[in-house]
Amino acid sequence: MADVENPAPGAPGPEAPEVLTTPRLFKQDKSSTKPQKIPLHQIYALPAPLRTFPLPSFYPNNPLSLFHVLWAWTSQALSPPRAEPSVIHQGHWSPETRSVHIRDPKSIRALWEQGFFGKGNYSRSEPNWLKREQSRQGQGHKRVSELLTVQRREERKMMKWDRARKEQEAILKTRLAEAWVAPVGPKELLALPNSLQDLLVLPVAGLANGHTTPDSLSHPTPPRAPISSTSPGVPPTNISTLSPPELAVNGDQGGETGKVPFPSLNDGHPFSPPETPAMKPASTSRDIVASMPKRRKSVRFSPTVESTTFQLGDPPSPHLGSSTNGKVPNGDMTNETRPLPQPAGAGPPNILDVPVAADGAAASSELVDREHLQLSPEEAFYLVFGLGALSVIDPASGKTMAAQDLFHLFRQLSYFPHSTTPLRPDDPFLVQYAVYHHFRSLGWVPRPGIKFGVDWLLYIGGPVFSHAEFAIMVLPAYTDSYWKSQGREPPRKSWQWLHSISRVQSHALKTMVIVYVDIPPPTQASDPSALLKRYTIREFIMKRWLSNRSRD
Amino acid sequence: MPFDDEDLPPASLNTASDDAPFDAEDGDQAQDFRLFTSLLASPGKQNQASSKAIRRGEKDFESHGTRAQESVLESSRSAMHEVLSYTRQHQPRNPFRGWYFPDRWADMPPESESTTDTATNKQSGDRPTKNHDSAQGLFARERIVALESDKGTMLSSTGRVITSAERFSPGRLKTWLLPEEALFLIERGTLDLWWPARGIEEILPTDEGQAESQANSEKLEDCELGVPLSLQAAYALFIGRDGERGKISLEKYQVYSNLRRSGYRVLRATPLPLQSSPTRTPRSLWQWLFSLLQKTSNPRYPEYGPLVRPGLYRSYVPIFEQLALVQRHKPTPLPPSEVPQPGDPFKIHFHIWKSTSSFIKTKPPPPDFQMAVVDARDSGIPTLEQLDSLLLSTPWDPPTNDEGKQGAGFVYKRLKHAWRNAILAVVDRGLISYMRFGEMAFGEELLYENTNTRPRGKRGGRAGRGRGGGRGRGRGRGK
Questions:
Q1: Acidic residues bias: where (chain B) (predicted)?
Q2: What is the pTM assigned to this prediction?
């Protein structure tokens, strides 16, 4: 789970590969690959890795359906299908990562599609590393959620950048409108050009008192490098240059000549990310600087995006911001799923239109799926103990681990620091597993919620269908008289702790649920059935109450 | 910000979570002073900052040196100046004078605290007498400020007339205030608090003795009766520790005044009838037999083995039924009689009514909200027992029965409504954070039983909630 999750609420839920959210994609999809589109609810039809054999329904007004029922029943009675679970998947206990690895691709797909167990070790949640690699190398148009997320982020970045550009243009426009003063004095009137020819010849359109003439406004000078900014006596010409290209050029030039009033963030390097102080087009010219207040922060932009790869010397573009934001641009290929560097001038990146790379065909033949599915201890134990659809192999002995061994191992490992003291009824694994089992047995899909600062996220149906609605925080409770006599108290949590979690949840549009696990007193019984039956789960919703919204 | 896509979500497809976007926003917004000026603007005076200038949703994070921006800023500034320079005056027409008599009702019986008392009362069916009913919520022992007159709209939800004393005792039939009510009225500028220099008989003559005292009071000047008290004195007199008679803790007063200023009606909590008569529908013989059958067929769980026995299954219901192992919570309308009384920080302190509901202070309707006040530094988050007993002391309020609606939105809605609700006001040195806690029961929603809860066809469950857009701009809060 090395991927850096964007906590902004605009980003989709990280576990939810929302396929097809933008209408544009929809269209594209219809036109190009219409035949193989299987609805999601068919792919993910089974809520558990067990099959059922429902009898066909009998319609009283259609007597023939009775025969259908009878036929189905007799055929199942005569040649019964294999008892479910018919497939017992093989998992390998990995002591280093403390997870259970599934390596068989069929099992990986089955466990993911039938109940959303585990995560791909190279993927965010759905194990789709192979698909991602294939689409990266140009083999077919595969829609992978991670790539879609990247694309959506790109689009959003472009949109924001465009918005910022329009804002800046509007500001510049008002500034120019305000700077214009009708020429009334004799000197100004004399300085007016006599003809269009004069205007072209005139090197400098501005006037000494800091005002620009209407002509200079209506006829923007062609873009050029603002050498004028270095000489103080020259009137501000760039105030009249409306064309955006020069704005960017101005900024860069200003930075290089060291005339920027604010030092850029990366020391010595003239280019700063778009968020850093810039707005150099205006600040380079002295006269306007004098009339304008100092600013801390501004946006610098360029009207077109030339390429998606960047040299350090390239002019800034909206893509630079995120890639230099503490990350090596192409550093983590496995999780970040950034598209490969493309030839310069390819335009804004569109993952779906990635041209087939020249060496794509050569590389494709040797592409092997190197991804495995990793199950957390709770998931693995639920599959073994609850459903019986998994058997875990101990790598040391090569034999299948029995459920009690697995149970003991997981409980033992949940202590930190690792200890060999006798197991307590409130060890972390048991508490978390009780919650996991509780929600699974009700039909929810719990998935780890570490990215949201909670213990579990609850999906209704699964992460491909909808965002998680509930975020679960697990707390132990000691209400039994045994614990009272022992003086055992639950860990005291501050209100600040609770508020910080709840703030994150409300920002991510999740409902926070506090789950208390009532810990029973210790017993002799050590089998999970007898133990888990004694735990009680209590859920409490917790939500901020806004007094000015609930009044009427 | 022409592309600001943080617009209101369209009439949401997801009925359950239509209040969620509001929750994400902050409750406390900066005041737009131009709104106030439009209120203050008198018709004769020309008001330059009109409310027409208000355009919401745009916010400049930096000055960009245009005169347009400066003028907008200047108009807003001058509006604020205008509002703040408004002279507050105490209206001379209704002088509200209150007298501080802390020990007048000290020997009254304290308010009965037990909830089960009234619950059993109601339950047994005999209607409490009218006298008892009106004494409910009187808190006579705590009332320490007597008002000379009882006119004014402020008193529609403040103060109570004490009628229960014997006939000719002084102070009877006067409006008496609780410390938080008195302090709030003083802060608001509605009440003058006076310290009595004479006995209560002379200051507040009873009706019957009015004739003879008429002559007396005529010659007694104000200065002879007592002295006016300052706001600081009022704070010193009324703010105390929890449990002190005639005082209120600072946290509770802060919550009280915050709610009153926001327009709520707030009264001290009285024990509520917890629920109407227990609605235990008699089960038919068939149901009983059926439940017997289910009991006996309840599987013994294999110790280590898979809970789901290998076999042929016609549907997922028996599979999930075999998985039910951990005990689920089933909310019940009647709390067991041995419910522990909620301990002090985590118990209902205030009952709150919305401003719209009609209100009679002697017989208030069932409250809209119930609130407990806790100090953020003195207490941690509640334990299970504390939270449970707090919620058990609030009325049973199950989600509305929309039987048969099995969509995910309905499931969310029912679960989020919760079966009992209480609000905790967490006060951290004057800053109040309100949190709603509700008793949920996921065990009441067996998702596996209906296949419709699984969203089908519609992908990306929260589409159309305005989620996709550029909220990442962060509204400039931290900048």
A1: 20-29
A2: 0.72
